[in-house]
Amino acid sequence: MAALLERAAGAGADGEVPVAAAVLDASGAVLADGVNGRETGSDPTAHAEIVALRAAGSAVGRWRLDGCTLVVTLEPCAMCAGAAIQARVDRIVFGAFDDKAGACGSVWDLPRDRLALHRPAVVGGVLEAESSALLRAFFASRRRERPYQQP
User: Which residues are catalytic?
Assistant: First the structure.
């Protein structure tokens, strides 16, 4: 998680929301990682988790990532939690909780939904203070640079 926080900070410096993700194999080795790329790639689906899951699928040569763990600095949203479920990851580990869009326990709880096709284990709050501080600093900086103006 500490290494992902460094990657996330780099994405923040590039103007992306500072979130990073990695997919680990069953032994804990990193198969792939990624950072948010929505702004730089003009891609609404380029969340760090999606980038990492796509790269991991390419690395192993299949879409099923059973036995793998998705680690991310921010609680996955509905799209990313759904992608992790579809990829059949065994576990989702995240740092900061997302009280606005989190889908692994905060707003929704897709991985634990009794109707879910696959139910990965979820561990939240890993280096939560550091993950939250990085996000708060990023958004505070953005508000100073571009104060909100009503249309």
Answer: 49
What is the DSSP code string of 11-23?
HHHTTS---EEEE
Task: Give the model confidence (pLDDT) of 5-54 as tens digits.
Answer: 999 999 999 999 999 999 999 999 999 999 999 999 999 999 999 999 99
> Looking up tokens 């997302």, which residue turns up?
98
Runs of H (alpha helix) within 14-100: 38-41, 48-60, 78-86
The C-alpha atoms of residue 134 and residue 129 are separated, in whole angstroms, by 9
Helix (H) / strand (E) containing 34: strand 30-35
pTM above 0.90, yes or no: yes
Question: What type of residue is 100?
Answer: K
Neighbours of 149 (CB within 10 A): 5
CB 77 within 8 A of CB 83: no
